[in-house]
Amino acid sequence: MGVVRRLLNRWHEPALHAEFDEELRFHLDARVDANERAGMTRADAEAEARRHIGSTLRATEGMREARISGLFEGLARDIRHAARMVRRQPATAFLAVLTLSLGIGANAAIFSLLNAALFRPLPFPDAGRLVAVVDRYRGDGGGLSGGVTGPTIPELLDVTQRSQAFAGLSFFDMRDTQTYGGLEPARVFAARVEPSMFSLLAVRAAHGRTLRPEDSAAGADPVVVLSDGIWRRSFGADPSAVGRSLTIDRRPFAIVGVLPPDFSIDYLSPEAIEIYLPYPMIPIYTSRSGPFANVRRVTAVARLQPDVSLEQASAEVRTIGGTLVLEHPEIYRADGSGRTLGFEMDVQPLRDLVSGPARRTLLLLWSAVGLVLLIACVNTAQLLMAQAIEREPEMALRGALGAGRARLARQLLAESLLLSCAAGAAGALQAVWLSRALRWLLLDRLPVIGQVSLDLPVWLVTAGAALGTTTACALLPVLRLARVGPGPHLDGRSTVVARGRPRHLLIAVEVAVSVILLVGAGLVVRSLMDLQRARGGFSSDGVTLMRLRGMSAASGPVGPLGATYRRYLERISQLPGVEAVALTSSPVPPPPGVEFTVVGQPADAAALARQSASYQMVSGEYFAVLRIPLLQGRTFNETDVAGRQPVAIVSAELARRLWPGRSALGQQIHAGPGPRAATMSIVGVVGNVRSPRQLEDAPQIYVPILQQDEPSVALLVRPRPAALVSASSVKQAIWSIVPQQAVFGVRPLDEVLSQAMDGDRAIAILLASFALLALAISTAGVYTVVTYITARRTREIALRRAIGATAYDVLTLIAGPTLTWTIGGLLAGIAGAVAVSGVFAAALPGVATIDAATVALLAGVYLTVVAAAMCVPALRALRLEPAGALRAE
After folding, report:
1. Residue ranges of the alpha helices (H) in 297-349?
2. pLDDT at position 225, please?
3. What is the DSSP letter of 178?
4. 313 and 382 inside one domain
5. Do 517 and 509 meet the contact criterion of CB atoms below 8 Å apart?
6. What is the pLDDT of residue 481?
7. Which of 40, 130, 265, 808 has the fewest C-beta atoms under 10 angstroms from its C-beta?
8. What are phi and psi of 683, to 5 degrees?
9. Per-residue pLDDT for 104 more than 80?
């Protein structure tokens, strides 16, 4: 009878029992009738029939076993027996559950983050066919070389016209805006969306409508679509908000729709998007001769045709990109030989665009907790192995009484199942707490889809980890059981001492894995310390950062942005207690990424590859606010405004590279992204600034912000010593000039710069925590093994001491083999750390390279801790009185 049928029969036991009884009566009556026909009396016939059939109870049980699965009863008996064994040895069970639960809980918590960032599908219909169109430079292109950037609007229009692979293509960018109507102007984060984006993502408005193509046309009435969040927060979830007006950047916009609460593209954005505006499809953006022809700041999303693969779409888009290079060499800088700088267009899954930067980091963290779980599993196997050795006489006796090895193995596996349930439950509780800690540490710094939560996939992984690890831990005792014979244990005088090689091999594995984690965490922590020490060249003490979103002259009577900014600076500098005030495009210089050329020198590919600098717009007092020293020339002054000769200030590192031994003053460079590109004269040289996450001096270019039309700026205010300048007084000074100006993001500059390191700091904290956990578990494993060996060899130690063995002899006997295997594991771990150091460098760019000093320090620390763990039980053995120990034995 099949197993499935036998399992189903459990739900029909009463009927089957009645059938069994009826079948037995039938056979008994048939035998009695046959006996009577043979000449027996009725009584003799019945007695002979009962003797022939035997015990009816035994026959019933035989039929029951044949037709009803006894798996559940047997498992229940095994679990009850396992519970009794746990009660007999609670310390072993507690240590096993605690050790495994630490590894299981850490894995579940990290997997919850991994699931949200890498595995959870995008919340759109048929999201697997959504791709991103990207640009990259694979050849000699300076700051963009090898990197992925957004395409330009003209490029996307060409792809739309020439491609057959896409069912739709759209794009958007993001920017600050400001609204009015509250106590003060408010900043709102907006997305400018090409209208077909909503149909591409199959999104319908919850109220009203989404954007239409005519909304992007030149001269169209300004309209806006609200996110569900701002609709509820600012309009009280009132459906009549559709049709009303919202003032954005001092212009009235008609509210035409409200998006559903489950729609979001925030994971493609640095922060939550609250309003959606139509992207203006006007010549300044769409023309290749316009000032924005080579500006790459949009995110492009496309949907593949049903019968088109990703590879086919990629090949088609790369072909289109190659054609554009040939058609427009003036944009893509093809040299005289026809060779380009490696520009190409491509597509990638939208999922990869979201999670790409974090993928390696998250997989590294999951690998780290996987190693912690491996160590926990090995350590638990040590405990179960010691327990199994102690139970060898019991197992031998049960085997002698008829229990087969499969039955004994099933008992051990049942005990592991009990442990897995307890460890899984404890691990789940720990995962809840750890996932909250992960939200605090990492959620704002990694792209995730939805919320980090312990959902069904996470619970399934947790249950699988609990069951798999405990079963793996039980394998060693089960394999040892296969070699156990009852003979040496049945007379009660067994002196068999278990061989220690398997346990020592497990110790070596624990040590090797722990060292790999320790070295990796040490490299990350050292890199973080190097980055913190390297930051310098400026002083941010006491400086307050405020952010502004400027408005163009067309928006009101305030005049050009440069003139408005100059009035802001003049008014704020007059406030009591203000030492210096400045405007800047970024608080500190960004990483190098803008190419530049030196006027009078050839702009070949090799030169461009070397000439990439950070590019920052600042006002003249910026250097005084951050106390960056002026080395040569001058800073910017009131004459460096729009319409005058473009000028620049460069860092000492840039001057050293380009004009070694000469003055940089008066030299000319051509620099600037997109429409900001200009030929400018160098009027000053300042000290080098090392920003957060920057280890070495880099070329830096500063240009006057008053010569630019830059709407998004940061205001830096330095108070005089012992003076206090309130944010409200600065706001009032700004509003005295432009009452509609939004001021937001008011924070100490030190806090902002420290936050730039939060991602690195969080990774370092996690890896260090996992490494310390691995160290604690492996040390406990060493301690357990040496303690067990000492307890098993108490009589031998007593005999050796009685015949004159020294303390050194006893220590060598007890700790020597373990120390030898520990050193072997240490060497293997160091070799493994060297081998995987490249993985850390790839997952965490900027991580320090492995070096002998770091390895020696960490290995020394580990060996010291393990040696201490071995010495405790060994020294306890030395305090044994030989006579007392022998009598106890």
Report:
1. 310-327, 329-332
2. 95
3. E
4. no
5. no
6. 60
7. 808
8. -110, -5
9. yes
The residue to which tokens 């019933």 are assigned: 60
> What are the φ and ψ backbone dihedral angles of 796, each rounded to 5 degrees?
-65, -40
Closest CA to 170 of 137, 139, 133: 133
pLDDT at residue 561 greater than cutoff 80: no
Closest CA relative to residue 510, chosen from 414, 342, 378, 643: 378
Q: Are strands 251-258 and 166-179 parallel, antiparallel or unpaired?
A: unpaired
Structure tokens at 538: 């400026």
Would you state the structure tokens that stand for residue 229, as one six-digit string? 């969040």
pLDDT category of residue 882 using cuts at 50, 70 and 90: low
Q: Within its chain, how far is the Cα of 753 from the centroid?
A: 22
Instruction: Quote the radius of gyration of the chain (alpha carbons, Å).
Output: 38
Distance CA 772, CA 764 (A): 12
SS3 assignment, position 348? strand
Domain assignment present for residue 682? The answer is yes
In a domain, residue 601? The reply is: yes
Give pLDDT tens digits for 259-288.
999 888 887 887 889 999 999 998 888 888
Say if residue 311 is in the same domain as residue 374: no
Q: Six-digit token pair at 535?
A: 């930051």
Evaluate whether 730 touches 546 at the Cβ level (below 8 Å). Answer: yes
DSSP secondary-structure letter at 487?
A: G
How many other β-carbons are positioned within 10 Å of the β-carbon of residue 186?
A: 15
CA dihedral sign of residues 520, 523, 529, 534 = negative
* Number of domains comprising the chain: 4
Q: Which of 716, 104, 72, 865 is nearest to 414 (CA)?
A: 72
738 burial class (0-12, 13-18, 19+ CB within 10 angstroms)? buried
Closest CA to 119 of 398, 368, 362, 370: 362
- The conformation of residue 845, written as its DSSP 8-state character, comes to T
Encoding tokens for residue 60?
A: 């019933």
pLDDT, the chain, mean:
79
In angstroms, the CA 696 to CA 689 distance is 9
pTM to 2 decimal places:
0.74
Residue 542's Cα: distance from chain center in Å?
34
List CB contacts of 35: < 8 A, sequence separation 6 or more: 44, 45, 48, 49
Q: Cα separation of 135 and 243, whole Å?
A: 39
Query: In this structure, are 320 and 368 located in the same domain?
Result: no
Q: Which residues of 585-606 are buried (b: 16+ CB within 10 A; e: fewer)?
A: bebbbbebebbbbbeeeeeebe
Lowest-confidence segment of 82-86, 629-633, 829-833 by average pLDDT? 82-86
For residues 56 and 148, state if they share a domain: no
Are 735 and 792 part of one and the same domain? no
Residue 20 domain-assigned (yes or no): yes
Both 623 and 692 in one domain: the answer is yes
Dihedral Cα 226, 231, 233, 235, nearest 10 deg: 120
What's the whole-number mean pLDDT along residues 745-756? 88
Same domain, 524 and 637: no
Least confident of 44-53, 206-215, 371-380: 44-53
Cβ neighbour number for residue 563 with a 10 Å cutoff: 14
Whether residue 304 is predicted with pLDDT greater than 90 in this model: the reply is: yes
Indicate the residue among 341, 370, 403 that finishes a domain: 341
Which candidate, 408, 415, 380, places its Cα nearest to that of 393? Answer: 408
Instruction: Render pLDDT for 810-852 as a digit per residue (tens, 0 to 9).
Output: 777 777 787 888 888 888 888 888 877 777 666 666 666 777 7
pLDDT value at position 141?
37
CB 164 within 8 A of CB 316: yes
Asked whether 382 and 134 are in contact (CB, 8 A), the reply is no
Domain boundary among 341, 370, 396: 341
Q: β-strand 612-618 against 700-704: which pairing, if any? A: parallel
Q: Domain range spanning residue 612?
A: 551-740
pLDDT digits 0-9 by tens, 114-123: 887 777 778 8
Q: Give percent of the chain with pLDDT exceeding 70.
A: 78
Kindly state whether residues 777 and 677 are assigned to the same domain.
no
pLDDT of residue 478: 66
124 in a domain, yes or no? no
